[in-house]
Give the backbone structure.
Amino acid sequence: MPIPVDPVERLSLPLALSGLAAAGPLRRAGRRLGIETVRDLLFHLPRRYDDLRELMQLANLHYVPDGTVVSARVRVTAVRVQQTWRRKVQVTTAYLEDDTGAAEATWFGRRFVERRLHEGDEIFVSGKLKRRGFTMVIEGPDFQPASAVSLLHVGRIVPVYRLTAGVSAARLRAAMREALDRDGRAYPEYLPPKLRREAAAPPIGEALESVHYPPDFEARDAALLRLAYDELLALQIGMVARRRSRGRDLAAPIAVDDARDAAVRAALEASLARKLGFEAPLTPDQSQTIGEIRADLARATPMLRLVQGDVGSGKTAVAAWALAAAALAGRQAAMLAPTDLLARQHLATVAALLDDLGIPVTLLTGSLEAKARRNALEAIASGQAPVVVGTHALLQESVSFADLGLAVVDEQHRFGVEQRGSLEAKGGSGRQPHVLLMTATPIPRTLGQVIYADLDVSTLRGAPAGRVPIRTGIRRPVELEGTWRKVREEADAGHRTFVVVPRIGPAAGSDAKDGAGGAEADDEGWAGDDELPDEDVETAWAAAAEAEYERLRGELAPLRVGLVHGRLKAVDRDREMARFRDGELDVLVGTTVVEVGVDVAEATMMVIEGAERFGLAQLHQLRGRVGRGTADSFCVLVSEAAEGTTEHERLRAVAATSDGFELAERDFELRREGNVLGLAQSGLPRLRVATLTNPDHRELASLARLHAEALVDDEGRLPADLPDLARELETGWLARVFAGDPASAA
Ligand code: ADP
Ligand code: MG
């Protein structure tokens, strides 16, 4: 087949048909990296860059500060392999020398390193420097044989890509060079000149060249800024467009008069008091949020409101108010939860809350038996079921509501815009249901303005009355005896403990944009330390959890210890969690799969091992699993991090505050770069270049916002004279961001 001359068509060609020499070797591995077309290849951006313009002599490492990425040409004098992490993950050490001195390189969990490195090898290494006493250690460096190096790979700023089995860094670099020469530099500009000027952005062709093969870091930064701006523009255009087009949609108003409002609130408060055993008036924030929802529901345009509230801030009661309001107005309401367990938990809570109002609640999940499922479907279709709680099963085509007036989506970041859309489409007859989204991920306010720009937001701050504060401490791994004693005491008192095992793979604080990706490279390739592919991370983490589970069964005997991790089938995981909830287990060991919002009132201890490897938001969320009853609760952050380090500071911040929003702000300050976990969970599409923790990028986001507001018309459309931009947004590299695909639709 002839290769099209039109550059735009060429970009969309599958690699196999592209006529690029690299197409063959890249075909299978490319797919694993998500590279299907020429465009995908061009936008497979470096994870980082190594400055190999200058090779260091080992003797000079002494003058370089810790944390600097250094490169050197060295000889391997010995290779040693040790097991750690309870023998599950191995550490490989290579002893290095050159004519001026010596150093060591260490790799964590990289089994292939030992096979690739041998005594006497001459290699280039490149990685972060870290002193251990007088020893200079290069941590998890990339390396490649000195013989295999061409000028694409050394003597310049070298792009380091995410790799996968079957494609070496060298091959990928060569493929990139070829694609850039033929199609990259000629990439048709899609930004209008005015926008490009105001964003001080280089042309896209130039940006692509410089992002892969920068002549210097200034050019690289300009290129990254351009690509970041493009992503932010796509994000904002998508949000503005969705918001404007929704303003034109119709919804049936759900009017709630004062008397009914008061009756529903009273019923909720009575139910809370019954459950808790003390008076439990709605908190001022709950009350205000309900007021906001009430005003939204009264309108003829569909509500789209996000309730953000820390774990335990009482979002369910607010949701229950809305569900009741819809039901009492004769409409149906549905509540969507991300897991079976959570849906069942909501069923119980919501049913209790709505009991006094005489509103029945129906469950629909994938695990229902055929007969129960048929009954539920019938009740939903006939309108007999005023309130339905369920999982993804609710989104299936076979589910049709008689008259859906309200959809509530819990843990909204777990669902994509599309999934939300398919629920909204169940409103029927051109009418949209009102939508209430809920999230437990606090994010800094400044950030919220950017990423929730298409939503109305209500915030629940602080915990309801009667909540016990959780005491949080930091312990070194060697100091845990007292902790385990405490776990035993708690168990004797009928309480339960979660133990979370250290995250494997790149630490949450690392700046790897793509998270854990890539894999071992082949012989000539550079092999980085933090490139374990997701499945390997998951497996290694599960193995670590299993090992810790075995160990703790001994250490804590005769306590009953359970185990959950991402490698278990969902049903088994749910069963284990249910056993923990029901008191058949005293201790639950696991990975962060324990974080999903199960409410276990008797859980009073949370032990988080390797705490420095988690993000602040995640630590906070994990901690929120305890302190849900009335008993004193504790969180132990186990870490080797030395006092005075940023890592330790971050843990101290967690120990010092129980306010998720305050913590989010603090996380922001402590980590100007890199992924703030809360951000990854905010439901924001995965941005490949833009980093909203970076103040420059936040400024760009504001600019992009202004541009988007000006570009998009009242009906949510782009002007007809920008076909190139429209194409890039709809089918180009910005499509996912534009469409609002979330980062983590699990
Ligand atoms: P989340 O916001 O994490 O979903 P929940 O809705 O599960 O929080 O509420 C957490 C706990 O707080 C529940 O046990 C609930 O019964 C309790 N709660 C909710 N509202 C109040 C209130 N106004 N006063 C006291 N306790 C409350
Ligand atoms: Mg909840």
Notes: The two ends are 39 Å apart (CA to CA). The CA atoms of residues 11 and 38 lie 5 Å apart.
